[in-house]
Amino acid sequence: MARADVIRADVIVVGAGFAGLSAAGELSAAGLDVLVLEARDRAGGRVESLRASDGRRIDTGGQFLCDEMPELLALARRFDKTLVETPLDGAFVAQPPMTEEEAEATYSASMAIRERMNAIDPDNPDIAGLSVAAWVERQADEPGARNAFRSMVEGLWCQPLERLPLWHLIDNDRRITNENYELQYFLGETMHALADDLAAALGDRLRFGAAIERIEHGQRGVRVASASGRFEAAEVVVAVPPVMASRIAFDPPLPACLSRALSVWESGAVIKVFVRYEEAFWREAGLSGTVMWRDAHGLFACEVSPDPGHAALVVFMGGPSARSWRSLDAAAFHETLLAKLAAALGPRAAAPLEILPRDWTNDRWSGGGYSDLIVDMRARDAEAVLRAGHPPVHFASSELSPSFPGYVEGAIVSGRDVAKKVAARLGKGGGRTA
């Protein structure tokens, strides 16, 4: 019987990112009493926002979606969010400069490398122990194409190619199935506002400032010790990235296979910078605002103006580039960034109204961004082991999703999948589908 100072629920969900919020919503809809414990003072996890100097809220974390992300689109419709098409009219700029024909050829060649990679069976014994970097070096493509491929991978997965097992990147990339541009839309009200809507639906069943200290588990259920109190439940869903889940103390210790599956991940390094201008001057030159750098791998910019009166670019630095940029002090960071933008888009790019950077590398409660990746060449079963969990302990995160791992869509899918499994274990079914 629970002590008087212990709060009881049917299910405890650790983490109020989209995986945790989606799991909690599914479980609540199935008629279960759910309690969500979040270490931060806000919901959203790797999705967050802040207010720019013009009064608008901007996404400083996860932001984009596309037509092939049905669960996220359904949530946006459910909460009456505005889809803003990412401005793409005009030419993109390659840096260092090259002709449009050269840029198209280089891009096509890099995508051909990606398609060739994804045609490999990830279970092929010939690639066991092979990093993405080692595989790329074996390709006969022109150096420019291989360089563009490296820049694309390090920008999207935010890890150096030397750290990535080839089989893991193939398996991961195959689950990202969009044919439309993955930056097709963003939400006018911010993606973070959508997380806040999901959080609000939980009412007082969501507790902020509740960092987890220990999870005790056994046949009688779980007891969770957090910074804000003690909680008991029949089941627990640990809905945080694998790196963060590995830092939780479990009593008794998790089975060796599960502990190892949690230990083989590394969080990505990424910096996202919002740059606001008086007007979208690049359009006057027939440019889209999209810039792809080849001399700084993982560096990319695109326009995110929500309307003609609010001109803005967002710049992403991923992988080794992020780790290099974060070593600069604020003045050097701004100076280097504006010099690169001016070289690509013209001198007016050096005079923004404001610059708002967000460094996700080594983030306290997410580990980093955009997601965690497996960096152990031998850990072929890590995802399957984590999906299976160790009932009454279950794991959910975007990284474990069967579709769009590393994206908000993947977090939603993973959270709901785990919630359905937990509800079935507790004799509940049905639930809401958005």
- Structure summary, number of beta strands: 23
How many H/I helical runs? Answer: 13
Q: How many whole angstroms does the radius of gyration measure?
A: 22 Å
Fraction of helical residues = 25-40%
Q: Give the strand content.
A: 15-25%
Strand arrangement across the biggest beta sheet: 8-18-19-20-17-21
Quaternary status: single chain
Low-pLDDT runs:
none
Specify the biggest β-sheet: 6 strands, mixed
Mean pLDDT: 95
Shape: globular
Structural class: alpha/beta
Terminal residue distance: 37 Å
Tell me about this structure:
The chain has a 6-stranded mixed sheet with strand order 8-18-19-20-17-21. The protein is an alpha/beta fold. Helix 1 (18-29) packs parallel to helix 13 (408-425), helix 3 (100-118) crosses helix 5 and helix 9 crosses helix 12 (382-388). The protein has helices at 18-29, 70-78, 100-118, 132-137, 143-157, 166-174, 191-200, 242-245, 256-263, 320-325, 330-345, 382-388, 408-425, and strands spanning 6-8, 11-14, 34-37, 49-51, 57-59, 64-65, 83-85, 91-95, 185-187, 206-207, 212-218, 221-226, 229-233, 235-238, 249-251, 265-267, 270-277, 287-293, 299-303, 311-318, 354-359, 372-374, 393-395. Strand 19 (299-303) and strand 20 form a beta hairpin. The model has no long low-confidence stretch (mean pLDDT 95). The protein contains 13 helices and 23 strands.
